[in-house]
């Protein structure tokens, strides 16, 4: 791949463009908002000059509702040898293109499973996709050259290619992305009018659950409008679970004897199934989650504190597998939770105490 045209210079399009430019590809940028394209140019994502002839690959990074129209226009103009989109739904755009009677042998649907709560080119990064799955949805009609171009793009972005059927992809992202977004937003919505005294008690649990609720609403309207059926089915199942759990909790409050025990068993079953589902979420390097031990360190909110902790752990020969920070309410301090292999806990604990860090149980 020597040349590419990125149509749509939001978070995903600009991030892909930055990655391609970093690998020596000449990238042309286009957007219905010229100011947004100029911002991407200023970030080093390419040029907003139109290509003189067909490019190797046209990457369409428009909202799902507009993907088919933008792709159809680009195909009719013959702007590239291959065409690819990065919309978060795959079945609907392809069916729209088929209905238009276009030759889809030079097109492949794709979806990089990466993003941020912020949108737009200023949130873009060349390493946004590094190590993340990038779904490709070829069909038996997909030209081999186009598939190879798509694989080259994924490689340039340092992502991990995953080949799926388009409709299977849409059902999968409804489960692991679209439904969780609405559940997170629903939980966060309960905080809008909550008493201030209650909100001040927010800890890491509520922060984890509501993190993605900070996402941009209009972006999610576009995504959900393109995949409503599978998401609605999942929400119906979740609502049934919640309704059953609510009845079980009321039994715990008001019933006695066998009925109370049954209520407790039903709540326990929900928690158990949650444990079983959580275990299936891939952990580090895509493997099943491993059981790490936590070494908790109290730090002040000052520059260089995290760097010092990591350096001290490195000096002790301990690899930090993961890290979380729980901020203290109303204080310039926080609790850093260092996840390490169980056998490394005594070594790290001794090293950090020797260097004056305050550890917490």
TrEMBL record:
Membrane-crossing ranges are none
Pathway(s) it belongs to: Amino-acid biosynthesis; L-tyrosine biosynthesis; (4-hydroxyphenyl)pyruvate from prephenate (NAD(+) route): step 1/1
Say which family it is in.
Belongs to the prephenate/arogenate dehydrogenase family.
Pfam family of the protein (one): PDH_C
EC number(s) for this protein? 1.3.1.12
Q: Which domain of life is it from?
A: Bacteria
What catalytic activity is recorded? prephenate + NAD(+) = 3-(4-hydroxyphenyl)pyruvate + CO2 + NADH
Lineage, top ranks:
Bacteria, Bacillati, Actinomycetota, Actinomycetes, Kitasatosporales
- Give start-end ranges for the coiled-coil region(s): none
ACT domain: from which residue to which, for each copy? 294-361
The UniProt keywords, alphabetically, are: Amino-acid biosynthesis, Aromatic amino acid biosynthesis, NAD, Oxidoreductase, Tyrosine biosynthesis
Top enzyme class of this protein?
A: oxidoreductase
Annotated Prephenate/arogenate dehydrogenase domain residues? 2-279
PROSITE patterns noted in UniProt: ACT, PDH_ADH
Q: Which GO terms describe its molecular function?
A: prephenate dehydrogenase (NAD+) activity
Q: What is this protein called?
A: Prephenate dehydrogenase
InterPro entries, A to Z: 6-PGluconate_DH-like_C_sf, ACT-like_dom_sf, ACT_dom, NAD(P)-bd_dom_sf, PDH_C, PDH_N, Preph/Arog_dehydrog, Prephen_DH
